[in-house]
C-alpha cells in the first residue's frame, strides 16, 4: 500500500484556550493530508477532477480516536493511506504520531462524484479509475 508521511508543527491558531489542538483543526489537517497523499502518488485533485469529468471528491463519513493531545509548538507526523476501494468510494486512514506514540487514528470515506448524465443539476457517483487503484495498491 502507498503511504504518505508528512510532518506538521502545531501552530498557535490550532489550539484552544487550554493550549491543546481544537479537534476541528485536525480534520482540516486530515483533509489536506488526503490531497497531499494523492499529489504524492501522482494524481493532483485538480487533475483528477478535470481528467475524469468529476465535480469533486467529497467526504461522506469521518471519525477519529484521540489518544494523546498536542499543544502549540509540538511536531506531529501524519501517515495517510487508502485502506480500501469500492466502486466509487474509498476509505482513508490517517495515523498521527507524536514521537513514536500513536496520538490519533482518523478515518474518512470519500466518493468520486460527477454530474448526473440525465440532469446536470444533480450529482452522481463515478467509478474509481483503475490506474488510481493500481497506484495506491502497488505502493
Your description of this structure?
- Keywords: Hydrolase.
- InterPro entries: 4-hydroxybenzoyl-CoA_TE, HotDog_dom_sf.
- Pfam families: 4HBT_2.
- It comes from Bradyrhizobium lablabi.
- This is 4-hydroxybenzoyl-CoA thioesterase.
- The protein has 139 residues and is α+β, with helices and mostly antiparallel strands.
- The protein has one domain (3-137): Thiol Ester Dehydrase, Chain A.
- It has three helices and eight strands, in the order βααβββββββα.
- It has helices at 23-40, 45-51, 130-138; strands at residues 3-9, 54-56, 59-66, 75-85, 89-98, 101-111, 113-115, 123-125.
- A five-stranded antiparallel beta sheet has the order 1-4-5-6-3.
- The longest helix has 18 residues, at 23-40.
- The relative contact order is 0.23.
- The model has no long low-confidence stretch (mean pLDDT 95).
Poorly predicted parts: none
β-strand percent reads 35-45%
What's the arrangement of strands in the largest beta sheet? 1-4-5-6-3
Helix content: 10-25%
**Principal-axes shape call:** elongated
Pfam family, one: 4HBT_2
Keywords: Hydrolase
Protein name: 4-hydroxybenzoyl-CoA thioesterase
InterPro entries: 4-hydroxybenzoyl-CoA_TE, HotDog_dom_sf
Amino acid at each position: 500500500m502507498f503511504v504518505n508521511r508528512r510532518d506538521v508543527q502545531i501552530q498557535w491558531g490550532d489550539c484552544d484556550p487550554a493550549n491543546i489542538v481544537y479537534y476541528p483543526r485536525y480534520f482540516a489537517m486530515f483533509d489536506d493530508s488526503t490531497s497531499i497523499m494523492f499529489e504524492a502518488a501522482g494524481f493532483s485533485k485538480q487533475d483528477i477532477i478535470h481528467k475524469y469529468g468529476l465535480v469533486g471528491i467529497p467526504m461522506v463519513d469521518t471519525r477519529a480516536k484521540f489518544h494523546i493531545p498536542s499543544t502549540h509548538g509540538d511536531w506531529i507526523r501524519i501517515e495517510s493511506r487508502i485502506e480500501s476501494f469500492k466502486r466509487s468510494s474509498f476509505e482513508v486512514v490517517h495515523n498521527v504520531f507524536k514521537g513514536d506514540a500513536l496520538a490519533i487514528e482518523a478515518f474518512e470515506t470519500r466518493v468520486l462524484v460527477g454530474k448526473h448524465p440525465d440532469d446536470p443539476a444533480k450529482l452522481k457517483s463515478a467509478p474509481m479509475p483503475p490506474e488510481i487503484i493500481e497506484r495506491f495498491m502497488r505502493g
